[in-house]
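Re: that backbone. Tokens:
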């Protein structure tokens, strides 16, 4: 199956966007000072749920970005 040029670029841009958003989110989660993510230095359920969300979203965004990159390369040939 061949992915069109526009769709390939969209998927690639989505992957890059995912990296920016979810890495920033994870950094902010680790630096949380509101008391939601850590209770006396120990991670809370909020922390684990949101860390899992960030990791899964980051991995899916990476996979989608790779598909877009492969589509871009295939369209150049």
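Recovered sequence:
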């Amino acid at each position: 199956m061949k992915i069109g040029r526009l769709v390939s670029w969209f998927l690639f841009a989505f992957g890059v966007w995912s990296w920016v958003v979810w890495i920033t989110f994870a950094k902010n989660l680790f630096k949380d000072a509101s008391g939601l993510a850590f209770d006396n230095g120990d991670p809370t359920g909020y922390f684990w749920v949101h860390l899992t969300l960030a990791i899964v979203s980051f991995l899916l965004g990476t996979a989608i970005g790779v598909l877009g990159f492969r589509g871009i390369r295939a369209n150049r040939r």
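The CA atoms of residues 26 and 54 lie 7 Å apart. DSSP finds two helices and two strands in the chain.
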